[in-house]
Amino acid sequence: MTEELLSAIYDSQEATAHAARMWSESQAWYFSNWMPEIEAPGAWWSQYAPSFQRFLPDPPARVLDIGSNNGSLVLSLRFKHYEAYGVDLPEVVERARKLLPSIAELLFPLNLEFDDLPGADYDIVLALSVMEHLVNWRAFLPKVARVMKPEAVFYMTSPNGRKAGKEHWHWRQFTLEELVALGAESGLVTIWADAMTASLGVAFQK
Q: Does residue 177 contact residue 159 with C-beta atoms inside 8 Å?
């Protein structure tokens, strides 16, 4: 695979129909042989993989990826034998389904009231760089908590409000203290946190 093709794969807005077909044909080889761990060089989520992998239970645990973008993390988890699903905005899910038709039935559109999170009893929920985009951010963690099993983990990242500059498409920047407090209000206990970089990482347990 060339760098040009990898770039197309991991950016659904730039992916062509030809790249999508090539992806479908080669995905089994790619994930079986080039990704022994849940990592993908060039994938938008790969920077967070070293942190969230420590909280992944053994497969076939149920995983929900909120803000699944092009679906590449869901596909990677599926190849590691996790029961993984993804949710994102309807237009994003539509693009991802065309890009990765083999997992189209695993990606679901989400409304911004979070009333349509698919299924329940997840062992771990991921939300990588999602919270800062939400207008109704106060409703987010309580809705996530409802679909988690007892003792399940919710791992999230968000720009560090003390270090990262505010982007125009972000509704809110958070501090670590604010995220921990929001988790507590939702009945979630903070079990791990990292505020050393421009991005916050927090793991909550139900």
A: no
Would you say 144 and 127 are in contact if contact means Cβ atoms under 8 Å apart? yes
Distance CA 144, CA 200 (A): 18
Q: Are 12 and 74 in contact (CB under 8 A)?
A: no
Residue 4's contacts (CB-CB under 8 Å, 6 or more residues apart) are none
Residue 116 CA to residue 131 CA, distance in Å, equals: 17
Residue 165's pLDDT is 59
- Residue 44: per-residue pLDDT: 67
Write the single-letter amino acid at 24.
S
Residue 194 and residue 155: Cα distance in Å, rounded?
11
For the ranges 16-20, 129-133, 137-141, 177-181, the lowest mean pLDDT is seen at 16-20
Percent pLDDT > 70 in the chain is 75
Separation of CA 110 from chain center: 13
Pure H helices in 138-188: 140-146, 176-185
